[in-house]
Amino acid sequence: MKRVLGIILFSLISLLPVAASEHSEAKGGEENNTEKFDPTVVIEHHISNAHVWHVVSWGEGEDKVDIEIPLPIILINEGKFHFFLYSRFDHHTQIAEDNGSYFLYHHGTIYNTDAKGTITEDENGHLINTKPWDFSLTKNVWSMWLSIVILLWLFISIAKKYNGSPKRPHGVQSFFEPIILFIKDDIIVDQIGKEKAYKFVPYLLTLFFFIWINNMIGLVPFFPGGSNFTGNISVTMVLAIITFLVTNINGSKSYWKHTLLAPGIPSVVKIILIPVEIIGLFTKPFALMIRLMANITAGHIIIISLVSLIFILQNVWVSPASIALSVVMSILELFVALLQAYIFTLLSALFIGMAVQSEEH
Amino acid sequence: MTTTALGLGLIVIGAGLGIGLLGKGAMEAMARQPEVLSKLQTAMLIAAALIEGVALFAIVIAMING
C-alpha cells in the first residue's frame, strides 16, 4: 500500500513541471514563439548572492506574481551612510533614491547613478559606473544567521545535558555525540597529536558543523534554504583565511625553520625549494577555498540543470526522468555536503598538525 | 568556448585517471590489510581531495571564461 502510494505520488510530482511548461508553451504561442528558455539565467540567479529573497512566483508577463522578501541595504557612498529596503528600487528602472543620492541595481550589484539612471558602459557592455561600499544584509547573510541560530540552539541544548551526573544520552544528543567524538578522535587528535590537539578542538569542530549545516541548508529547495552560502567564494575565503592564520600563528620553530631555511639541503636546490615552500604556504588555503566553493556550486548547478532539461526540451516524457535524476543527485549532494565539511576539517587539521610539530618529530 | 571545453575534458581525464588509480590502490590495500582500513580511508580521502582540487580549478576557470 505504501509502495503504491509512493509510486502515485512520485508520478504526480514528476508531472508537475510539465503542467508548468505546457502552460508557458500555450502562452508563448500567442505572443512570441521564438523566445527560448535559457537555463544559464536561472542558474546564475540561483547561485549568486542577492539583495532580495525570492520565495515563489507564478504567472507570466503582466500577470506575473512575485513573492519576495526585500532585504535591508546598507551603503556607504562618499562618506555618507545610506540605509533603506530593497523594495525602494523601482520595479522597471531599478533606480532608488536616498538622501539625494541615486543608486542603480544591475545584476545583483549596486552602482552610483543620477536621477535619470545614466549608465556608462565599456566596449564589452559592462557597466563602469562607480560603486558605493556595499554592506547590505544580503540573502547569504540571513542564511548564515539562520544556520548560526540552528547551531547555537542545537549545541547549547546538547551541552546542557552534560552538566551534572552523567546520564545515558538521548534524543538529538545521541545522534551528535558519535559525530563529535569521531571528529575529535579520528581527525583532530589523529592529525595533530595528543598533547597539542585540545587547543584546536573547538575551532575545528565549529568549522565542521558550520560548513555541514550550511551545505545542508543550501540543499533545501524552498524558502528559508536554497541560498548558495558555502558556494560563495567570499565565505570560503574567510574560512580558509582563518585556517591560514591559525596554522601560521601556531607554527613551531622547526616549522618556520624548515619552511624558510630548508636545512640539510644543497644550496643550489634551496634556490628553487624555498620559494616553492613559501608559495606553498598560500596555495594550501587557496585550494581549501576553491575546493569547497566549487564543489557546492557545481552540485547546485547540476541539480538545476537537470530540472531545466524539462523546460529546454518542452517534452512531457522528459519530466519523470529528469525528476528522478535530480532526486538521485540531491541524495549524492547530501553525501557531498558531509564529505566536503569532513575534507575541509581534515585538511585544516592536517595543516595545523604539520605546523605545530616540534623538532624531535 | 571550445578550447575551454577541450581543456576541461583533458583535465577531467587526468583527474579521473588519478582518482581511479587511487581508489584501485586503496581497495587492494584495504582487502589485503583490513585492520588498517580507517587509516587507509583517511589517506585516500586526502589524496582524492587534492586530485579533485585540480579538476575544480578547471571548473572555476571555465566559469570565469564563461
From TrEMBL, chain A:
Keyword tRNA processing included in the entry's annotation: no
Residues annotated as signal peptide: 1-19
Localization, UniProt: Cell membrane; Membrane
Domain of life assignment: Bacteria
Pfam hit, one: ATP-synt_A
TM spans (from-to): 142-159, 200-223, 229-248, 260-282, 288-313, 334-356
InterPro entries per record: ATP_synth_F0_asu, ATP_synth_F0_asu_bact/mt, F0_ATP_A_sf
Alphabetically ordered keywords of this record: ATP synthesis, Cell membrane, CF(0), Hydrogen ion transport, Ion transport, Membrane, Signal, Transmembrane, Transmembrane helix, Transport
GO MF annotation: an example: proton-transporting ATP synthase activity, rotational mechanism
GO cellular component: plasma membrane; proton-transporting ATP synthase complex
Membrane topology: Multi-pass membrane protein
Its biological purpose: Key component of the proton channel; it plays a direct role in the translocation of protons across the membrane.
Xref: HAMAP family: ATP_synth_a_bact
Annotated family: Belongs to the ATPase A chain family.
Designated name of the protein: ATP synthase subunit a
Organism: Plebeiibacterium sediminum
Gene transcribed to yield this protein: atpB
UniProtKB/TrEMBL annotation, chain B:
Top-level taxon of the source organism: Bacteria
Record domain V-ATPase proteolipid subunit C-like: where: 5-64
Molecular-function GO term, any one: proton-transporting ATP synthase activity, rotational mechanism
Keywords: ATP synthesis, Cell membrane, CF(0), Hydrogen ion transport, Ion transport, Lipid-binding, Membrane, Transmembrane, Transmembrane helix, Transport
CDD domains xrefs: ATP-synt_Fo_c
Location of the protein in the cell: Cell membrane
Segments crossing the lipid bilayer: 6-23, 43-64
Pfam family, one: ATP-synt_C
GO cellular component: plasma membrane; proton-transporting ATP synthase complex; proton-transporting two-sector ATPase complex, proton-transporting domain
Residues annotated as site: Reversibly protonated during proton transport: E52
Topology in the lipid bilayer: Multi-pass membrane protein
Biological role stated in the UniProt entry: Key component of the F(0) channel; it plays a direct role in translocation across the membrane. A homomeric c-ring of between 10-14 subunits forms the central stalk rotor element with the F(1) delta and epsilon subunits. F(1)F(0) ATP synthase produces ATP from ADP in the presence of a proton or sodium gradient. F-type ATPases consist of two structural domains, F(1) containing the extramembraneous catalytic core and F(0) containing the membrane proton channel, linked together by a central stalk and a peripheral stalk. During catalysis, ATP synthesis in the catalytic domain of F(1) is coupled via a rotary mechanism of the central stalk subunits to proton translocation.
Family designation: Belongs to the ATPase C chain family.
NCBIfam families: ATP_synt_c
Protein name: ATP synthase subunit c
Species assigned in the record: Plebeiibacterium sediminum
Lineage of origin: Bacteria, Pseudomonadati, Bacteroidota, Bacteroidia, Marinilabiliales
